[in-house]
Design goal:
Helix content: 40-55%
CATH topology: Leucine Aminopeptidase, subunit E, domain 1
Shape: globular
Strand content: 15-25%
CATH superfamily: Leucine Aminopeptidase, subunit E, domain 1
Radius of gyration: 15 Å
Number of strands: 6
CATH class: Alpha Beta
Length: 190
């Protein structure tokens, strides 16, 4: 499911994903917005985690955010595509989903990881994100109820919509985790 908006607002999920930097101590974009909305307690807990490597994920409480958890994952910087960027981005999504499963989280919202100041090409990032989620859901049927992307602008939403259509996820009506996609595509992404 895709929505255009601010990931720090209520999206009726148990966890949101933070496109973090490796320090986990806040920054710009989504990372800064999540830290501001969660309050100073998030920074205090993040300091105890001693950072996170690119492609991995760590979890904290959500504090003042309207969900239970924040899953932090540092995405890769785009360096032209020959330095394992796609594999690292796939690892970000997979690590977040594995951590969600481990913690019994059944609904999760992602931003578009690495497509801001890390300059990952939008279409490539959407391909990795949707493909990784699709494979994960297929390998873990019935474990996740909702995977949602909360996307900042229409251009990003369109890239993810195109990728969802490419994967023909609208036909996967009975597939756990993507049940809402069929209706979402019929409603034009609203």
């Amino acid at each position: 499911m895709m929505v255009r908006g601010d990931i720090t607002h209520n999206h009726e999920v148990q966890a949101i994903v933070n496109a973090a930097n490796t320090s986990l101590l806040g920054g710009g974009g989504v990372d800064g917005a999540i830290h501001r909305a969660a309050g100073p307690e998030l920074l205090t807990e993040c300091r105890l985690l001693n950072g996170c490597k690119t492609g991995q994920a760590k979890i904290t409480k959500a504090y003042r955010l309207p969900c239970e958890y924040v899953i932090h994952t540092p995405g890769p910087y785009w360096k032209g595509g020959s330095f394992g960027e796609a594999e690292l981005l796939e690892s970000c999504y997979r690590s977040c989903l594995e951590l969600a499963l481990e913690k019994g989280i059944r609904s999760i919202a992602f931003p578009s990881i690495s497509t801001g100041v890390y300059h990952f090409p939008l279409k490539d990032a959407a391909r990795v994100a949707v493909g990784t989620a699709k494979k994960f859901v297929a390998m873990h049927p019935g474990k996740l109820d909702v995977i949602k992307w909360v996307l900042f602008d229409d251009r990003t939403r369109q890239a993810y919509e195109s990728e969802l259509e490419r994967w023909k996820l609208s036909e996967m009506v009975a597939s756990p985790g993507f049940i809402a996609v069929n209706q979402m595509l019929r409603d034009g992404g609203r």
